[in-house]
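Hey team,

Filing this mostly as a record. A colleague (T.K.) asked me to run one chain through the structure pipeline before their review meeting, and I want the input and output archived in the tracker in case anyone asks later how it was produced. No errors, nothing strange. Just documentation.

Input sequence:
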Amino acid sequence: MGKSNGADMALNDFVMIINSDHSVKQGMSPDGLIAGTWTINEKAMILTIKDSVTAQEYKMKIVSITADELTLVDPAGDPAAFIYYHTK
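Output structure:
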């Protein structure tokens, strides 16, 4: 008897660009993108994004990954938030 909610439309404009050189740009339109870096712990399936502006680290569990889709869960949320990305 779990609960299910629709997508949070407030995050609809959130963009994350992950590059093969371990750089990342993320942010919301129209505020602009913030540069950072990413690392991955393949054994634990944890993606860590480090914001270059604040040096804040965000750790997210990789639920699934394909050539054009990435599903993450933010375990810090209450309840945990699922995040879906797809290529354009």
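Quick notes for T.K.: The chain has one domain: 10-86. Confidence is low (pLDDT under 50) at residues 1-8.
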